[in-house]
Write a structure and sequence with these properties.
With 320 residues, the chain is an alpha/beta fold. The protein is 41% helix and 12% strand. It has 13 helices and ten strands. It is elongated. It starts with 9 loop residues before the first helix and ends with a helix.
């Protein structure tokens, strides 16, 4: 005959739970105190949860949006989403700064020995780098993903960002000491023959995590507005092909599909397909004008971690 199940000892369940959750005793201490085995204490604690004697609640402080983060992770199959509450959601500068600060916290939390970290460029990534405190972790390597774009003295310049972060981490650094966009395929061919450029570009296949901004394709964009990167004609041609945004100047459409153009043949940097091969791609972006660009990048699996703001996150969760 099958054995009858033992009656539930509610008194013991309550006592073990009180010791563990209210008095802070360790399971080993409870086992010694009540003359139980350590595995028995563990089973009793689980049984207390199952029987409803213990109900664990998590009460996040204000401005922590775990539910939104979880919804984003589920909808877009993300490894992780981080959503911040911007002090001024209508200010692109304010949103970029606070997203950058959150990205710095994520960067430090996830930094591991052996990481080969790719870095693109942009204002939000610049805010991230400014917020990273000095660290000392062995065997970190920073790799510049695209040559210099815009004026070299700009903080968001990829070369400057990579140098800053390498100093903070006291780690190895591989730069692309060249313009991000050159005048012709012939000029590109000459630059790619340089051994230093070649050495950096061979590292693209070894990058295991990349931090990227998501840029728009409008004259109002900080990245595109001064015409030092692409011309009005090039912008119009890309828009005609339905390009809406870019990662490391590789342009994509509303579905996150690559939009090839003549510009691709003049870029010194990581290729579109190489971006997609990176194991963890952290998109650091948000603000009033970015939701559709981020949605497209998510659809195309161009990023699998997203750090953004609350208003953008809400927009991304709307049915489309």
């Amino acid at each position: 005959m099958p054995r009858k199940p033992s009656p539930i000892d509610y008194r013991l369940l309550s006592k073990v739970s009180m010791y563990y959750y209210l008095e802070g005793l360790k399971q080993e201490e409870i086992a010694d105190k009540l003359l139980l085995s350590r595995p028995k204490v563990s089973r009793l604690l689980q049984q207390a949860l199952d029987e409803g004697i213990v109900n664990i609640t998590v009460n996040p402080p204000p401005n922590i949006h775990h539910d939104i983060e979880k919804a984003l992770e589920k909808k877009y199959a993300l490894q992780e989403a981080v959503v911040i509450e911007a002090a001024d959601p209508n200010s692109e500068e304010s949103v970029s700064m606070q997203i950058g600060q959150a990205a710095a916290e994520y960067f430090i939390r996830t930094l591991r020995s052996g990481d080969r970290i790719g870095l693109s460029w942009g204002t939000t990534l610049s805010a991230m780098v400014r917020s990273i405190p000095p660290q000392s972790i062995d065997d970190i390597h920073i790799v510049q993903l695209i040559g210099g774009l815009g004026y070299p003295e700009l903080e968001m310049h990829a070369n400057n960002l990579c140098q800053q972060i390498a100093r903070l981490l006291n780690c190895r650094l591989s730069l692309l000491p060249a313009p991000g966009v050159v005048d012709s395929k012939k000029v590109k061919s000459v630059i790619l023959s340089d051994s230093h450029i070649q050495q950096t570009m061979t590292l693209f296949e070894k990058i295991n995590v990349a931090y990227v901004g998501i840029g728009s394709l409008t004259s109002k964009s900080h990245q595109m507005g001064d015409h030092t990167i692409i011309s009005d004609k090039e912008m119009a041609e890309l828009q005609e092909k339905e390009a809406i945004g870019n990662i490391a100047l590789r342009f994509f459409d509303h579905n996150g599909m690559h939009i090839r153009s003549e510009l691709d043949d003049r870029i010194i940097g990581i290729e579109f397909d190489q971006i997609k091969q990176i194991k963890r791609i952290v998109g650091v972006a948000g603000g009033p004008q970015k939701s559709e660009l981020i949605r497209a990048a998510l659809k195309g699996d161009l990023i699998n971690v997203l750090i953004t703001d609350y208003e953008t996150a809400k927009s991304l969760l709307k049915e489309k």
